[in-house]
Design a protein that fits this description.
By secondary structure, the chain is an alpha+beta fold. The protein has one domain: Alpha carbonic anhydrase (Carbonic Anhydrase II). Helices cover 22% and strands 26% of the residues. The chain has seven helices and 16 strands. The longest helix is centred in the first third of the chain and has 26 residues. The protein is globular. The N and C termini lie far apart (111 Å). It binds zinc ion. Zinc ion binds next to β7.
């Protein structure tokens, strides 16, 4: 070969090697997403430990198969009024819109959850949104879902907790439904800042923190509980899930804003893909139990058949008198 041909061949090999290495690195390190080439169907192969596991999330909650169980009340610390040194930062992480709950003084216990049958006291890290919802209920997919991610304070760090099966993390899930005629005030704290986080890597620090509780339904006593995983790679099977039965009602304008304001890509990327449909499809239960909290603020709930039986017994008793 002529020297020039050799040089060109060498360059071509170099470029091809770089492309292959980049593709491999992309698949192994944060290269997952929600498109056909890197989406949920590819995760079990690309992240066999854990995405290929038997206790994966999300699931379809079959309400009739859920087992009734009474749990003590859930306790929320810092959710109503933001702690004095709290700092909230919204960001586009390339997969979802997330709000980090930070502390100006480095505290990890500003926001906590406990009780509710949780195996410990959990520190809150962040909350983020998927649209549509990841969990479905009796096959129904909601417009969106909020995940509040927390880690068990009995472990030294969130990172350490993230590998501990089965109780390292607890995630609270709120299902969002675009059925309100008016904008939800809590959700407006998110929607109003979407233009500041349009692209991957962008973030915005709120000058004033808002109440996390403003993103929750009033009824936090009724929920489903099961043991599962993170819903994004590496899908660690370390999560105690709590899915509130009452959805948060937001407006159609608010869900439209989520669907159209942001991109999976960094600013300046050639092929901008709208950040939408960032949910994992549901996974088999594989024998797991979904519990149905039967907390009803002291009002006992009787299943219709039981109620009918009670009425029948009372009636027959009355007839005998
Ligand atoms: Zn999530």
């Amino acid at each position: 070969m002529l020297p020039l041909q050799q040089q060109l061949t060498g360059m071509l090999v170099g470029v091809l090697t770089a492309v292959v290495l980049f593709s491999t690195a992309n698949a192994q390190h944060g290269g997952w997403g929600y498109s056909s080439d890197n989406g949920p169907a590819t995760w079990p192969n690309n992240y066999p430990n854990w995405c290929n596991g038997q206790k994966q999330s999300p699931i379809d909650v079959q309400s009739k198969s859920a087992v009734q169980k009474s749990f003590p009340a859930l306790n929320f610390k810092g959710f109503d009024t933001p702690p004095a040194d709290a700092q909230m930062r919204i960001k586009n992480n390339g997969h979802a819109i997330q709000v980090d709950l930070l502390s100006k003084t480095g505290k990890t216990d500003n926001y906590q959850i406990s009780g509710g049958g949780l195996p410990g006291t959990y520190n809150v890290l962040q909350f983020h949104f998927h649209w549509g919802s990841e969990h479905t209920v009796n096959g129904k997919r909601y417009d969106a879902e909020m995940h509040v991610v927390t880690w068990n304070s009995k472990y030294p760090t969130a990172s350490a907790a993230s590998t501990v099966t089965p109780d390292g993390f607890a995630v609270l899930s709120v299902l969002l439904e675009a059925t309100s005629q008016t904008a939800n005030p809590g959700m407006q704290n998110i929607v109003s800042q979407l233009s500041n986080v349009a692209n991957k890597g962008m973030n915005y620090t709120y000058p004033t923190s808002f109440s996390v509780n403003s993103l929750f339904p009033a009824d936090k006593a009724n929920y489903w509980r099961y043991m599962g995983s993170l819903t994004t790679p590496k899908c660690n099977e370390v999560v105690v899930w709590t899915i509130f039965k009452t959805s948060l009602k937001i407006s159609q304008d608010q869900i439209n804003a989520l669907k159209t304001s942001c991109y999976f890509n960094s600013a300046g990327d050639q092929d901008q893909q709208q950040l939408n449909n960032n949910y994992r499809t549901t996974n088999p239960l594989n024998g797991r139990t979904v519990f149905d909290s039967s907390n009803t603020s002291g009002v006992p709930q009787l299943a219709p058949t039981v109620l009918a039986l009670v009425i029948a017994v009372l009636s027959s008793t009355a007839l005998q008198l």
